[in-house]
């Protein structure tokens, strides 16, 4: 996994007012912690950081005070209305160190014709090398028939990655679509309206 390099600035003012000023300046408040070191309160470049966070489990190299710190994002606080990043907690890591993260499930392939699939678990907790974290776990549903279930134990994990949760969890279920009574009533209503419209049009048409 390639490192995303960011330069950080020291942050000495704290509180909501200071955080707002930091964000208005195009920066994101953050804290670096871990490995027994005192927390480092920093500000990161806003646009570059937001772009980097679009990558799942991105590995950062934070340049601060003349030293590069390898880190991953452990908590991202967002404004629920504006959907802007308010604060980031970054965990300092080292090469060869194992960390626990959640990885999104990526469905590949097409199930048997006439079936649909339900993703019961969107993310899987795993443990992997901090500098080689997987961005997704692919789950193939190619040709699977209705009634098939894929469990956590069935997943093919990237090399060097191990499960960090129960192997019995159901990840994907293949089923046949079931129409509800409400769907059937709606279809019947649409058909009735269309039939009435056709009949009205036929009556209004001039005789030949």
- Helix-strand string: EEHEEHEEEEEEEEEEH
Number of helices: 3
Amount of helix: 10-25%
The tally of structural domains comes to 2
Rg is: 26 Å
The fourth-level CATH homologous superfamily of the largest domain is: Ribosomal Protein L25, Chain P
- Arithmetic mean of pLDDT: 87
CATH topology of the largest domain: Ribosomal Protein L25, Chain P
**Proportion in β-strands:** 35-45%
Give the overall shape, derived from the CA principal axes: flat
Distance between the termini: 76 Å
| Main sheet summary | 7 strands, mixed
Strand order of the largest sheet: 1-5-6-7-3-4-2
Would you count the extended β strands for me?
Answer: 14
Structural class designation: alpha+beta
At the first level of CATH, the class of the largest domain is: Mainly Beta
Uncertain spans: none
- CATH architecture identity of the largest domain: Beta Barrel
Notes on the structure:
GO terms for molecular function: 5S rRNA binding; structural constituent of ribosome. It holds the Pfam family Ribosomal_TL5_C. This is Large ribosomal subunit protein bL25. Residues 98-178 form the Large ribosomal subunit protein bL25 beta domain. The radius of gyration is 26 Å and the shape is flat. By secondary structure, the protein is α+β, with helices and mostly antiparallel strands. The protein has helices at 16-24, 46-52, 181-204, and strands spanning 4-7, 9-10, 27-34, 37-45, 59-64, 67-78, 85-92, 98-108, 116-119, 123-129, 137-140, 149-151, 162-163, 170-175. It has a seven-stranded mixed beta sheet with strand order 1-5-6-7-3-4-2. It has two domains: 4-93, Ribosomal Protein L25, Chain P; 99-175, Ribosomal protein L25, C-terminal domain (RNA Polymerase Alpha Subunit, Chain A, domain 2, Beta Complex), CATH 2.170.120. Helix content is 19%, strand content 41%. Strand 5 and strand 6 form a beta hairpin.
